[in-house]
Amino acid sequence: MKVSIIIITRNRAVFLDRCLKSITNQTVLPREVIVVDNDSIDHTRSVITKYQKILPIQFTREYRIGIPYARNAGIMLAEGNIIAFLDDDCTADTNWISSIEKFFKTYPSAVGVIGNTLVANNRLVPALVEAAYNYRWILMHVENPKTVCQILSGVVVDFKNAAFRLAFIKQFRFSSHAPHGDAGSNEDAEMGFRMFQKNQNIFYDPTIITSHYYSATLSRLLWRNFWGGYGDMLLLFQNRINLKKNHPTQRQDIWISFCRQVSKHLLPRQRLIFFLLIFIYPLISRTG
């Protein structure tokens, strides 16, 4: 099994360095690492050059700024029979690639899988709030997040930690008409929605682990959530995809338990702020 990794990046050389370093530590190395530079003006190119000496990196530059353009450029180049997506602000667990390979060998009918994304900067309250709501989203759209299972809806597909069979992913392109950008990106949900309509054999596997650097500051957290809400409404009006519809609430107790668990290491004042933000967070999204 040959795994190609697609990483898109723009002006985040420090994050990219950490991301690529995590790939060098894999127990199984990939067939290729496709790095798409979305017209960066920082020292991204020097970071890529540094790791080209260690990893089978294929570098390309996409001058049209936007996540859909960059990811589509990566898909066009990929040659492995499994295409894995990893965001530049994520780091992969040492068994990330081997876990992806194991999944596709175990589930030959599966066309894709999303993994378990932890919070890397778990000492920061805004990051923990964003991670908590990411887990809530998983609870809404995955039957059992503690085991391998089929997803219940394509809108949960998250390309910061996902993998697909080449023959399947090559049928799709990210839409430049879906809301996308630095904050409030909804192109993943739109793409996942179309994929799920085509083939529902897309799974969630908690053993495919990455760690994501969520919003580090309160301003960044609220900015992303406001524009996320704005993007949700655009998806509804432009694509008829409703991300704000009511979802089952029977897992609320699991989510509250998760929030308590991830925040237990915080100081009392930080924990108070964390739970205040937990209740304020969805209000900001609704104003977007």
Low-confidence blocks of residues: none
**Shape, principal axes of CA atoms:** globular
Helix % is: 40-55%
Q: Can you count the helices?
A: 10
Strand element count: 9
Question: How would you characterize the largest beta sheet?
Answer: 9 strands, mixed
Proportion of residues in extended strands: 15-25%
What does this structure look like?
Helices cover 45% and strands 18% of the residues. It is built from ten helices and nine strands. Strands 1, 2, 3, 4, 5, 6, 7, 8 and 9 form a nine-stranded mixed β-sheet that branches. It is globular. The mean pLDDT is 93.
Attribute tags:
288 residues; nine-stranded mixed beta sheet; 10 helices; alpha/beta; globular
Question: Could you give a quick summary of the protein structure above?
Answer:
The chain is 45% helix and 18% strand.
SSE diagram, text form:
Blueprint: E1 3-9, H1 13-24, E2 32-37, H2 44-52, E3 57-61, H3 67-77, E4 82-86, E5 90-92, H4 96-106, E6 112-119, H5 125-141, E7 149-150, E8 161-165, H6 166-169, H7 187-198, E9 202-212, H8 218-239, H9 252-263, H10 268-287
Parallel strand pairs: 1-2, 1-4, 2-3, 6-9
Antiparallel strand pairs: 4-8, 5-9, 6-8, 7-9
